[in-house]
């Protein structure tokens, strides 16, 4: 593993903190370590939700480590399983991930945040894609961002590298909540525990449907759902949890989810 990543597990929640002062920038070794952590999170049936954040109060993550690149890390090198930062290309990640943005979130750091399912941010957080100023392309953001926020706002960020404060990011919809810095991680854990108490098979089906439907027509995706052609949907519809949900509703009690 890496000395630059801290993890904490409590029940079904895994907290992952990037710890590379001063800017929590990511080199190849750190990216590969993050990939292994998120792969193991994906494959561990006891873990249900992950939180990703950065150490300190100034930076969530400044993205690609340009100093490491200047020392020989290739920009097209081996980022490891999951691609850059371990999340954005990790296949079959069917569990919720919360981004807790504790400061500056730019470049590849923003691309990692865009790979999470919920984004909460400290009130001093800021966001940008400054790659244009260093003569390179924000590749993953160029694919994802125009699908998440209005096209012209996404293109403004990509083409000019301008910064958004947290309130503008919230207004355009890629930040869910804004919090005082001292409340950020407590809220992240509150959300994580709420999700961890929910139905994991349903979460898995939601994530696979959303992911696969992105490149599909509505009717094609619906047909795959009704014909149980998504593996997660097929598993859900054959599960004990599906029956438990119906029984709990009929009996007016809280369901007990087993992920089976």
Automatic annotation (TrEMBL):
Recorded superkingdom: Bacteria
A single GO molecular function term of this UniProt record: lyase activity
Keyword Nucleotidyltransferase: no
Gene Ontology terms describing biological process: fatty acid beta-oxidation
Family of this protein: Belongs to the enoyl-CoA hydratase/isomerase family.
Annotated PANTHER family: ENOYL-COA HYDRATASE, MITOCHONDRIAL, ENOYL-COA HYDRATASE-RELATED
Protein's UniProt name: Crotonobetainyl-CoA hydratase
Entry keyword Lyase: yes
Keyword list, A-Z: Lyase
Alphabetized InterPro entries for the sequence: ClpP/crotonase-like_dom_sf, Enoyl-CoA_hyd/isom_CS, Enoyl-CoA_hydra/iso, Enoyl-CoA_hydra_C
One Pfam family linked to the record: ECH_1
Coiled coil: none
